[in-house]
Amino acid sequence: MKNSTHQLLMIRPASFGFNSITAQDNAFQNKTSSHSPEGVKQRAQAQFDFFVSRLREVGINVLVIEDTNTPEKPDAIFPNNWISTHTDGKVILYPMKAENRRLERREDIVEQLKTKFQVNSVTDLSTHEKESIFLEGTGSMIFDRVNKICYACISHRTDAKLLEEWGEMMGYEIVSFTSKDENGQDIYHTNVMLSVGSDLAVICAASIPDQEEQAYVLNRLKETGKTIIDVSFEQMQQLCCNVLEVCNQEGDAYLTMSKRAYDAFTSEQIEAIEKHVKIVYSPIPIIEEIGGGGSRCMMAEIFLPKK
Q1: Where are the beta strands (DSSP E) in 82-198?
Q2: Residue closest to 214 by CA, chosen among 163, 164, 177, 172
């Protein structure tokens, strides 16, 4: 069991654009752009393609699936919110808050996974959407798969009760807390303030205002042997926590991130990171600005056994 996989699922966008519905509680989104909607889409596709090429260059396997033209799905590039996969052959589908994001869940993608990987069960939690209960995959939950711990900040997109039920179903310890940005606004997804790898954790500890909760989270990370890279609110805003550890086919660990995040880390932080993993980064500015998500959001990890 590892905290990182060498196989990723990524969705090449067909109609990437600003999603006014998700912008209601995603402070990272920015509607302002000098490009036309068509220009935004084309730039997002080009940045996606270059990012995939960078990952493949270092030996990381990427399964790229094309988004469908209809219905339009402005956030299809972020598949980690609707699916997670696990080493025991489980596939879990998740309830999402924005109605137009629910269109991203595609049965044909699950069927395609079944042709390449061993899928023993598919658990669909999306029925909770009828009750306005949401749990948005590995946006909401950060997994320490080795120690079977799930870290999650409670928000409109991460329901506390469903989170506990998920933990019982999967046999994970739940470490939940409240996280806010420097303006006191709830952090919409845990993966913009925390990343947990095999030996590293990147966290904006200051975003956990309750000192007891903050201490508990930091202690749990330390107890499981993580070297902690604690970033500032400004660095969190530059998506320094929206990073993901991935392995290449030789088993070398890489921390994947955007160029924006890489440039925001201090030289001392980069040095500390590179004691544990190599770094691979790529520029995705239009995706970050318009979509409000970073490189981690673009990657759904595949932990399923190969056939």
Answers
A1: 83-85, 90-93, 121-124, 142-144, 149-153, 173-177, 194-196
A2: 177
Rg of the chain's alpha carbons, rounded to an integer? 18
Distance of alpha carbon 74 from alpha carbon 13, whole angstroms:
8
Which amino acid is it at 47?
A: Q
Question: How do the residues of the chain divide into helix, strand and coil, expressed in percent and rounded to 5?
Answer: 35, 25, 40
- Cβ count near 232 (within 10 Å): 16
Instruction: Provide the phi-psi class of 239: left if phi over 0, else alpha when psi is between -120 and 50, else beta.
Output: left
Return the structure tokens found at 226: 């993580």
Mean pLDDT estimate for the chain: 94
Q: Alpha-carbon distance 175 to 195, whole Å?
A: 14
| 3-class secondary-structure state, position 79 | helix
Q: What is the pLDDT of residues 215-258, one digit of tens each?
A: 999 999 999 999 999 999 999 999 999 999 999 999 999 999 99
Percent of the chain with pLDDT over 90: 87
Q: What is the Cα–Cα distance from 254 to 195, expressed in whole angstroms?
A: 13
Q: Are 175 and 216 in contact (CB under 8 A)?
A: yes
pTM confidence score: 0.94
Please give the Cα distance from 14 to 88 (Å, whole number).
32
User: Which structure tokens are listed for 243?
Assistant: 């990073």
φ, ψ at 66 (rounded to 5°): -75, 135
- Residue 91 CB partners (closer than 8 Å, separation 6+): 83, 84, 85, 110, 113, 119, 121, 122, 123, 304
Tokens of 66: 């094309």
Residue 192 and residue 28 in contact, taking contact as beta carbons nearer than 8 Å: yes
To which residue do tokens 């960078």 refer? Answer: 54
Q: Which residues are 258's β-sheet partners?
A: 282
Q: Are strands 253-258 and 278-282 parallel, antiparallel or unpaired?
A: parallel
**∠ at Cα 303 (227, 285), nearest 5°?**
65
